[in-house]
Amino acid sequence: MSDSVESSRSPLKRAPCPNCGEPWLRPTQLPGRLRCVNCLSRFELVSQCPNCGEHQTILRMSNTEDMQCQSCGASMLQPA
Predict the structure, then answer these.
(1) Which of 5, 14, 32, 47 is most exposed by smallest CB count within 10 Å?
(2) Alpha-carbon dihedral sign for residues 8, 41, 55, 60
(3) Where are the domains of the chain?
(4) Half-sphere exposure of residue 16, counting CA atoms within 13 Å on the CB side?
(5) C-alpha span between 36 and 62 (Å, rounded)
(6) pLDDT for 35-58, tens place per residue?
């Protein structure tokens, strides 16, 4: 039964790609930019939520929680 819990988590512990849903987002050489290795889409981590307009400080990109708005939970990743 613990197998179902472990299989629901991403084995790579990375954020899912907003385009294809696979956990293959990797940071690029430019700060705040990510690229999906699976579908090759590029994204930018923005400081203002596109959903509610709340401004947030980008502290670090290693944590997937930093890629979601703390107010409404929307993705802070935008196509680049």
Answers:
(1) 5
(2) positive
(3) 1-80
(4) 9
(5) 15
(6) 999 999 999 988 888 899 888 876
Residue 78: strand, helix, or coil: strand
CA distance 48 to 8: 30
DSSP assignments along 5-69, one per residue: HHHHS-TT--PPPTTT--S-EEE-SSTTEEEETTT--EEEE-SB-TTT--B-----SSSGGGGB-
The Cα 7–Cα 59 span in angstroms is 29
pLDDT digits (tens, 9 = 90+) for 8-41: 445 667 778 889 989 888 889 988 899 999 999 9
Nearest CA among 52, 53, 24, 56 for reference residue 40: 24
For the purposes of burial, counting CB atoms within 10 Å of the CB of 75, is it exposed (0-12), middle (13-18) or buried (19 or more)? middle
